[in-house]
Amino acid sequence: MDSKKVLEQALALRPNERFSVVEGILRSLDEPDVSLDAIWAEEAEKRLHAYREGNLEGIPMQEIFKEK
């Protein structure tokens, strides 16, 4: 079934049913991606190691959030 047909069918639903469909779709987009989590965890470990070894400088939080 193509997306146009799905949309047509969804628009034929009552408002509360449409809301349920939209909510379900949005929830499905918010599911964590385990492989991305693993990649970010590895990157964080590398950065922490580099910082502790003195190969990476930290940036003060005030500098990061300073308004320009």
Low-confidence stretches: none
How many β strands by DSSP?
0
Which percent band covers the strand fraction?
under 5%
The domain count comes to 2
Tell me, rounded to a whole number, the average pLDDT: 92
Overall geometry: elongated
- Roughly what percent helix? 55-70%
Largest sheet, in brief, is: none
Please compute the radius of gyration using only Cα atoms: 22 Å
The helix/strand class is mainly alpha
Order of SSEs, N→C?
Answer: HHHH
Termini Cα gap: 49 Å
Q: Please count the helical segments.
A: 4
Fold and architecture overview:
With 68 residues, the protein is an all-alpha fold. The protein folds into two domains: 1-31, no CATH class; 32-68. The protein is built from four helices and no strands. The chain has helices at residues 3-11, 15-29, 34-52, 61-64. The longest helix is centred in the middle third of the chain and has 19 residues, at 34-52. 0% of the residues are buried.
Question: How are the SSEs placed, and which strands pair?
Answer:
Elements: H1 3-11, H2 15-29, H3 34-52, H4 61-64
